[in-house]
Task: structure prediction
Amino acid sequence: MHYPALSVPQIGGGSLIAIVAIVHVFIAHFAVGAGILNAVAETLARRRGDALLLRFVRDSSKVLILIPFVLGAVTGVGIWFTIAVVAPRATSMLIHNFVWGWATEWVFFFVEIAAGYVYYYSWDKLSPRRHLIVGWIYAGAAWMSLVVINGIITFMLTTGRWQSLRAEGRWDAAFWYAILNPTYWPSLVLRTVSALAIAGIAACVLVHFLKSYTRDDRIGIIRLASYFMLPLLLMPPVAVWYFFQVPRFPRDLPFGGSIAMTMFFLFGGVCSALIFLYALGVIRRHEHVSLGSALMLLSMAFVATGSMEYVREGIRKPYVIRGYLWSSGIADQPAELARLNGEGILTHSPWIAPADRLARADLRTRGEWVFKAECIQCHTVDGVNGVTPLVYGWNREMLDINIRYLHRLKGFMPPFIGTDAERDALAEYLFSLSPTHHEDPPIAIPVAAVQPGGRP
Amino acid sequence: MTSALFAQAANALIPPRDEFGLPGPLWLFHILLPFTFVLHVIFMNFALGGALVLPSIWAVGRRRDRRDLVDVAMTGMGFLPIAVSFTITTGVAVLLFVQVVYGHFFYTANILLGWQWLSLLAYLCVAFYLIYASQKLMRAGRAAPALVALVVVAASLLMVAHIFSNNAVLSIRPNLWRAMHDGGSKHARDPMWTPRYLHSIVGSVSVTGLWLAVLGRCSHTLHEAARRAAVVTGLWIALIATVFQVAVGLWFFVSLDSSLQRSLLTFSFSDPRSMLWALAAVGGIVVIAVLWQSVQTPDRPRSVWLPVGLLGFVLVGMSAGREAVRIHALAQIPNALYQPSDVRLQSTPLAMFLIALVLGLGVVAMLLRWMFPRFEPSHAHSKTAP
Result:
């Protein structure tokens, strides 16, 4: 509303964020899990004098440098960039509430990167004890960055007492209640479990790309890596704990309330269960995992991560920050709603509706501007989540009723905010998009073909 | 009158300050932002300057059959991925604090640049992976493809600098916004753009020269001839680039509005930023004189460490000046900047950050001490050339 709107043709801003975020989350979880896996494996290798395991840890430490430190860091910055251009107001709110949380997370990130490089470059320079300490520093710093960031991510769905404490001017308490919100702990367990599993699977893949490992060597390493997938068993009870903390409406969405959410939730659940069962089988039978199977497991882990992230983002609707900021970028606050409903959204959207053109604009143009001001953060015109197929066949009256009662007809949609004239303009614009407006004219039936009594 | 109306229309486009205010004192953000920016530019300068300078040294070394130069370039390039990595890592902190204090300008600039802004991520990825690829190609003796990869690395990082220059100019020039939004051009047309961009490039070459000199002084892996070549070549590069940098800096200064020039020349103790900037500007001239001395007597320890210290101070002063220009430019717009009354202090979260920062820096210092236990001038441990 206060910012220019970035046009993301076909895929829309929401999908752009989702693509960058899912790739980043997957790599970031891998970085956390791999740090722990490396530290545990090096500890075991040094205690047992296991040269093979030590060689594997050494060989695989380069992957930390090549994937999380490059692609992970760039996609991490990428999330900031994309959320800021698609939803600048929400980003600004999160920054101004959690800057010290983010700054603390940055310190852990800085330590993680420094420790990661020292870990990789110091195999022949440091004593075994010191090298092991560096490995644990890396693992600890990576996990601590998850510990902090998890609070900000979960806050957006379950804000806890944050609003009331803010209203009382208790800024410190508001911060801590926001970070340690109702879904904080179950989400932290879920993410840690997921990070360990991804690292275990990645080790199964990686061992195939390292040279001079025999089949027996690989079996030993794969068996150790499979133990990191076993905590997936914790997922169902922790997920139950998580969903008990979620308010009723968003909780219902992945359990049949929304087809898309239910489907993605099932994807995630089934993939996680299959990975767990596979790992159990590998451990019990001392099985070898082929490269193809390992890659399939990795793909399943990616699908599971992506699906669960999609569900987490999806059930937050119609809010970006639950109870405070609608996904349309408008605050669910009485003063703001009264102002926008009274004065109109376009008078407060100077980028979209320039004051000198507003009075001269026709109804459809104003409707298009309202669409850009309120809808474009989630919808495209005819791409992903496009409105054109959604209004197929609707007449003006149906559009008017749908827009007027939008949030009651569809619980995941925010209410329309603006004046009556703006609502009419939006209806006119959407009507112009409706395919029936242009195609499929009614088929005229010749009068002669109609028999007396009204039957053809 | 027309310009006043134009300014009024431009100001109407500026988004309001965030309703949640500032979670810490304004002065603290005005320290944290330049502090993290200095950390960022130290690595950024080596990443960008290294991508420009090191391949050139490598190519010259190969053409003239100078093994010492080739070794210097190869060793320097070994640090490039780390420099890029820490450029991003430290850049995250700058990104964070700039959003707190100037987010409403920064986000608008990002959106106006749109896909160009987002393409920055692709350029970074390409540069990062091609640095690794070029090292592998070099080790395999495949000079031509390695050079092609390095040219792409340099071009990618120059594009990143180009995009950041666009963003920096747009973030303090709301009068350019409407034309950019309506016109479709994705270039911030402003007299300060070209000198600003050149300032970042030439500065990076200068800093890289000193990085090389430090490498020559401290490396325990390079042989004697290569170490000396690193010191001499690095000091010469730093000297020549700093001479150009002073000229470009002068051009940059002249390109600013007269009000901004005046704000930098106030020499008031009430504004330490402009004081620091003025001292740094003088420091830049002193660096040239010191570097000239250094290239005559490169073997003396202070020939490297004195210009390094001075250039460090110049970086701090220039960062302060950058902040002074931004504040003065935006202070001319009514209600644009946060005021002390906007502070909603979160004291315990702030304490958490400060404690984490102290501990984190301590851990990093310990790691560096472990990694470089003999961080001292390497002339005491001279090795002969192989």
About this structure: Strands of chain A lie at 319-321, 325-326. Chain A touches chain B through 63 residues (CB under 8 Å). Residues 158 and 246 of chain A are 7 Å apart (CA to CA).
